[in-house]
Amino acid sequence: MPRLIFLGAPGAGKGTQAKLIADFCKIPHVSTGDILRAAVANQTSLGLQAKSYMDKGDLVPDQLVVALIQERLNNSDAQKGWILDGFPRNVAQAEFLDSLLNEIDQPCDYVVNLEVPDEVLAHRMLERGRTDDTEEVIRNRLKVYREQTSPLIDFYLMRKKLTVVNGNQFMEGVAADLKKLI
Ligand code: ADP
């Protein structure tokens, strides 16, 4: 069963596709955004610490997300395969993940970059209407993506792990391309 990392700008459709492929392969869909939103809703200590960053569209501090991922990948359901959606989100997180996966001897098979043109991204996010999807927060999330997350494309290109999938097509088309890949 595959181990996949999904990269892509906010609004690229990572979450939707990650869920589809996780169901298809019967592996857990590990979305740091979903886990953090649940923590905020349940007012756990993680949620209370993460909320102000999420509300602004900033990244939650690395030490919080890194601990969350380490714990999640330790779960018994994650020993055979997984899809990471929303993690890593900067180079420090990617380096942490690299050494964690080495340590637990679970190399990742592919890093998928879902490519979608900038002008499509903001439009899609405005349509989904999440509470952190106001125009100002969206602008900040795109800026954070460009500055902190997009360098991961080169990071994984240099490690010969990167695969590009066209995210600017109907949902079914993207899903079909992903299934071909795995
Ligand atoms: P989107 O689909 O818009 O990219 P996510 O659901 O992945 O959004 O994440 C929502 C918010 O959760 C982010 O704006 C950020 O504040 C926080 N978050 C999610 N993953 C991470 C991460 N790996 N590192 C830091 N913050 C994160």
Describe this structure in words.
The N and C termini lie close together (9 Å). Helix 4 runs parallel beside helix 5 (91-103). The mean pLDDT is 95. Strands 2-3-1-4-5 form a 5-stranded parallel beta sheet, with helices on both faces. The chain contains 9 helices and 5 strands; from the N terminus they run E-H-E-H-H-H-E-H-E-H-H-H-E-H. The protein has a single domain (3-175), classed as P-loop containing nucleotide triphosphate hydrolases (Rossmann fold, 3-Layer(aba) Sandwich). By secondary structure, the chain is α/β, with parallel strands linked by helices. The longest helix has 15 residues, at 135-149. The structure holds adenosine-5'-diphosphate. Adenosine-5'-diphosphate binds at residues 10, 15, 32-33, 36, 53-54, 57-60, 65, 86-87, 89, 93, 141. Adenosine-5'-diphosphate binds next to helix 2 and helix 3.
Brief description of this entry?
This protein is an alpha/beta fold and about 180 residues long.
Percentage of helical residues? 55-70%
The CATH first-level class comes to Alpha Beta
Low-confidence stretches: none
* Total domain count: 1
The CATH homologous superfamily is called P-loop containing nucleotide triphosphate hydrolases
Give the CA-CA distance, first to last residue. Answer: 9 Å
Strand order of the largest sheet: 2-3-1-4-5
Bound molecules: adenosine-5'-diphosphate
* SSE order, one letter for each helix or strand: EHEHHHEHEHHHEH
What is the total tally of β strands? 5
CATH architecture: 3-Layer(aba) Sandwich
Would you give the CATH topology? Rossmann fold
Shape: globular
Radius of gyration equals 15 Å
The whole-number mean of residue pLDDT values reads: 95
What's the main sheet like?
5 strands, parallel
Structural class: alpha/beta
What share of residues are in beta strands? Answer: 5-15%
